[in-house]
Each structure stands twice: as C-alpha cells, then as structure tokens.
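Sequence in, structure out.
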Amino acid sequence: MFKDREDGARQLAARLKKRALRNPLVLAIPRGGVVTGAVLARELGAELDVVLARKLRAPRQPELAIGAIGEDGEVYLNPFAREIPGVTDAYIEKERKYQIAEIERRRTLFRAARPAAPVAERSVIVTDDGIATGSTMLAALHVLGAQRPHEVIVAVPVAPPDTLDLLRARCDRVECLLTPAQFGAISMFYYDFTQVEDEEALRLLREYRPGQVSEAGSR
C-alpha cells in the first residue's frame, strides 16, 4: 500500500535513479498521473510534460475501460470489448467522438500551461498513478512511437501482472513496484486516492521547474 500518489512516486523514483537516462522526459497521463509525474521528474532532474490519451467507457459502466484513444485519434479496443452488452459500432463511434473532444479540451488547457516537449532521442518515462487494463497506456505509447524517442520506459506504482506483460511488448522497459494478482481498482492500493482536478494538474505543470539534474539524468 502507498500513503498517497506522492509516496508511490518517490518509491518509484528510487528505482529509476539506478538507470542511466538520456536527457530524461517524464510524460504523465492526466490527471492523477501528473501528481506522480511531477514527483518523478523532480527526483530525476527531468523535464515534465503530459501525454493525452483517454479510456473508452463501457455502456452504463463508465469505470470499465473497453479500450482507449490517443491524440492521433486511433482507437484501441480491449479483447473483451465486443462481449459487453451495448458495445456496437455506433456506440464506439459515439464514445470516440466524445473522448476526442475531451482530448482537444485538455490539449488546449494543458498546452496553455506548458508547450509540448520534444521527444526525439530522449529517455521518455511514461507514468500514471497506476494501470488497470492498460488500454490508455497503450494508446499513449502508440502516440509516442512516431516521435523517435531514445527509449520508452513505462513507470507506475501498481499494475496487474498480465497488463504489464502486454505493455512490455510495446516499450523498452517496465518499472512497477506492486504487481498484485488480485486486482480490483487502483484506489485499493492507496490510503489516500483523492481525485485530482484539472486545476491541480495545471498548477503542477505551471510551477514545475527541473531541479539540479541528478547523475542519472545527466548521462
């Protein structure tokens, strides 16, 4: 269990400090991931930015992800998506349009606080406060693929083992502290999992300034 997102991020940073990183960039998935990302970036002496991807919600079960969509507009469906009642082509298209509009809203919001950071030839650490199905993270990784990073590291405090296996095929390395076989929700592994609002994520982005670059970040 983690006390809160900051606690999980500090423990994760301790593991990442052992790696040699090239001009590191932390990309956080809003909104909770920005809290995790700000701590990671500060601890690693890295630049901080966001990557925008959204889950596609199941009908009448908004907490269940049937897939995800990235900034490029491409849809990723989980293997079980079509088995859920109400998931039709028409529903998927309606949800796609809704989430694209939300990505555009967030792009306008977050880019006013911090312009997009260059990705090419850098060690890119993609983070969130946890991963469940992995669909949103997969969409984020796809967005990054065309930007020629030196390496992509997925770093999260908690995720189920089968999801991590799926992600390993799409990135260079996965760092995760807790890998419980019995996984219900990310919030189960935090004592404090208070919802993060746009205002908090924006504040973290506006106020963040890379500190003294660590030995890991200077290589």
